[in-house]
Amino acid sequence: MPQTLTEKILTRASGRPISPGDIVEVNVDLAAFHDLTGYHVIEVMEKMGKVRIWDLDKFVLAFDHLAPPPTERAAEIQVGLRKLAKSLNVKYFHDVGDGILHQLLLEKYALPGQVVMAADSHTTTAGAVGAFAQGLGASDIAAIVITGKTWLMIPEPFKIRLMGRLNPGVYGKDVALHILREFKAEGLSGKSVEFYVDDPSAFPMDYRATVSNMGTEMGADAAMFIPDQETINYIRNTRNLDVKPVTPDLGAKYMDEYDIELSRLEPLVAAPHSVDNVKSISEVEGLDVDYVFIGSCTNGRLSDIEAAAKILKRGKAKARCIAIPASRDVFERALELGYIDILVKAGCVVTYGTCGPCIGGHFGLVGPGEVAVSTSNRNFIGRMGSKEGKVYLANAAVAAATALEGKLADPRKYPS
């Protein structure tokens, strides 16, 4: 019987025939946690009396959420995790400055057809390369790190087809926000979304990563792009590795399908205080903005930094602006291309990959009564700082145009 990508991956991982709704045990190909969740994972492992890693080639640890540590407690946790990594001979350990875990998994580790599990909800990002990727809680990840196995309920496969090309000023973030507008937050719960791109070159990996990242906001169990030539090229270019894509069979059956004509989309913004409170840029344009954040595991990739630089090269930012490339590799490439210089000269504060502002942890929080535009993934009350602040989510070009003008702005008025 023809299988979807979801069914192919989970059939292999479980070693048995599967159907939606089945509860199965699966072998995990890649597991990870970061500084903020790692502490809790280790606590669980210690209570179980089994602090060990089942396979050092399949485990990644990264410091990203409170990195560099803004409090004594955060520093204490990182000291403990460093000691643990050394004692367990962890091979893939990324200390402060290397980047955000999800970006690192995408750049260096995740592969098509894998089962990827990590202690963070935005693990779905790895779905951009065609991996079945989920975020799980500390107890589940502790069990995975010890045994290499987990259980899950087989989700229903749901196909979204991306057709045509995006217009200038419109990016992957707008596709994610469009889906949230149509299906609402958690609207795809219990589904494994498989994205099929008609023209692979029209939707590059950076855009795919943004959409997969926000799959968790949609409620999806996984948000996978069906591997194609773009996938092959990305992995070859980032890792000098040739891969054979895992793809659905011809005639595979989905519980439902939805088509998106990319050329019909415009820049979108998620207004406070929900990711599905989506409006067109024209509905909110002109609103005074105090603070702009360009970065996060959602939109801290090279194309985002490039889009911001092409707009901010026109002058000084009128709203305070913090820009954080999602990894050291992205930072160094942006530095080579002159984008970092442009952002700094425009008045932005720029640093290495950290989640700080996105989670309201450090390095730039929203103050009482302030309005912020962020390229991150969540805007609920208090997410980025004060409960009295308001956060609008947008693509990097909207954020940069907003920083330049000090008001929510349409980036299409600034052609490259």
From TrEMBL:
Residues 24-406 form the Aconitase/3-isopropylmalate dehydratase large subunit alpha/beta/alpha domain. Its cofactor is [4Fe-4S] cluster. Pathway: Amino-acid biosynthesis; L-leucine biosynthesis; L-leucine from 3-methyl-2-oxobutanoate: step 2/4. GO terms for molecular function: 3-isopropylmalate dehydratase activity; 4 iron, 4 sulfur cluster binding; metal ion binding. It holds the Pfam family Aconitase. One of its GO terms (biological process) is L-leucine biosynthetic process. Keywords: 4Fe-4S, Amino-acid biosynthesis, Branched-chain amino acid biosynthesis, Iron, Iron-sulfur, Leucine biosynthesis, Lyase, Metal-binding. It comes from the Archaea. Binds 1 [4Fe-4S] cluster per subunit. [4Fe-4S] cluster binds at C297, C355, C358. It catalyses: (2R,3S)-3-isopropylmalate = (2S)-2-isopropylmalate. Its EC number is 4.2.1.33. InterPro entries: Acnase/IPM_dHydase_lsu_aba_1/3 (IPR015931), Acoase/IPM_deHydtase_lsu_aba (IPR001030), Aconitase_4Fe-4S_BS (IPR018136), Aconitase_4Fe-4S_dom (IPR036008), HAcnase/IPMdehydase_lsu_prok (IPR011826), Homoacnase/IPMdehydase_lsu (IPR006251), IPM_dehydratase_rel_enz (IPR050067). HAMAP family: LeuC_type2 (MF_01027). Belongs to the aconitase/IPM isomerase family. LeuC type 2 subfamily. Catalyzes the isomerization between 2-isopropylmalate and 3-isopropylmalate, via the formation of 2-isopropylmaleate. PANTHER family: HOMOACONITASE, MITOCHONDRIAL, HOMOACONITASE, MITOCHONDRIAL-RELATED. Heterodimer of LeuC and LeuD. This is 3-isopropylmalate dehydratase large subunit. It comes from Vulcanisaeta moutnovskia (strain 768-28). The lineage of its organism: Archaea, Thermoproteota, Thermoprotei, Thermoproteales, Thermoproteaceae. The gene is leuC.
